[in-house]
Amino acid sequence: MNENTPEVLISEEDIRSRVLQLAEQISVDYADGIDLVMVGVLKGSVIFLADLARGLSIPRTIEFIAVSSYGDSNVSSGAVRLVMDVRGNIEGKHVLIVEDIVDTGHTLKYLIGMMKSHRPASIKTAALVRKADKAEVDVTVDYLGFDIGDEWVVGYGLDYAEQNRTLPYIGVIKPPDA
Ligand code: PRP
Q1: What is the pTM of this model?
Q2: Of the candidates 162, 159, 161, which has an alpha carbon nearest to the alpha carbon of residue 171?
Q3: For residue 81, what are the CA distances in angstroms to 40, 46, 85, 146?
Q4: What is the pLDDT of residues 133-163, one digit of tens each?
Q5: Which helix (H) or strand (E) holds 130?
Q6: For 62-114, what is each residue's pLDDT tens digit?
Q7: Which residues does a 6 A CB cutoff place in the pocket of ligand 1?
Q8: How far apart are the first and last CA of the chain?
Q9: Which of 68, 102, 111 maximizes ligand 1 atoms within 8 Å of its Cβ, making it the mutation to test the pocket?
């Protein structure tokens, strides 16, 4: 390991088994025959979504949306704007919004509100990690991988300045000014 390799916070094996647990639970919870659409939030959710979707034992489709925060890219201003909406018709379907990380919660709260305009049968949320201490708004994560502290995490979809997204584990890096 060289000094640029992020320290392991959550191992590849721990992620794999937790994602499979979540997939099993989701497969049970959505067994009512109504179509399930997993809506991934670009870009961070891509790897989690891919593994979660493939772990399901029920039919599902996938869609993607993209959002952008106003202001400084590393400090959430709380204002979110939609950059790309879903392509398919999700009216009357179960929507499961899939995020890599919930930090302040502003993005997920905005997305839940935005998704309602598509008139789905239901809206629930999944996130790989959540920084519980950073929450600024009350938002429910129905399927949560792991609660973590206020650390700079990368890997398994999470990036810092686009680096380390494809690490197979979740690692911790030092803040750039540390
Ligand atoms: C991250 C993450 C969420 C959002 C969470 O996205 O994927 O969408 O921040 O932050 P919040 O809870 O404070 O609103 P990011 O802007 O880093 O984009 P990316 O997924 O493309 O890396």
Answers
A1: 0.94
A2: 159
A3: 16, 19, 11, 27
A4: 999 999 999 999 999 999 999 999 999 999 9
A5: strand 122-131
A6: 999 999 976 555 555 678 999 999 999 999 999 999 999 999 999 999 999 99
A7: 41-44, 69, 76, 99-107, 159
A8: 20
A9: 102
